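Batch manifest, entry 17 of 40.
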Amino acid sequence: MCSKFIKLILQLPSFFEIALPSEEEPNIFRVDIAPQSIACPNCQGRTVCHDRALRRFRHGCAWHIGVLWIELFVPRQRCKNCGFTFTFDYGLGLVHSSTESFRREITKRCHGRSIADVARDYALPYTTVERLNAGFTRMHPNN
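Output type: structure tokens
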């Protein structure tokens, strides 16, 4: 029951398995992903996992806890047909250390408020909020 609640709060795809956070790091959720075949974005051919790295991404925020992080293995795939190598992000819009969902939330919070207020609310550096807001607004002008 608790994991279903966490999955609803974090708004992650259904094929993600979310582990409960540890006592030491209550805001970091480890995500395991069921094995799946990943098609090449260029030729739609079969790919193999070339490499994978465990990474953390800001994904949301909860009051009294702070920024919620997800930790998952991000695969580098190589196409067997065309040899193209790419990072697969599972549709999360992974950029640097945040997901698209987190960047969208920060941008929405900045409407009608100062960047300094949003940075204080999320306990983030002013320049981080400024960069996230500017980058997301530039990439998604209609949001």
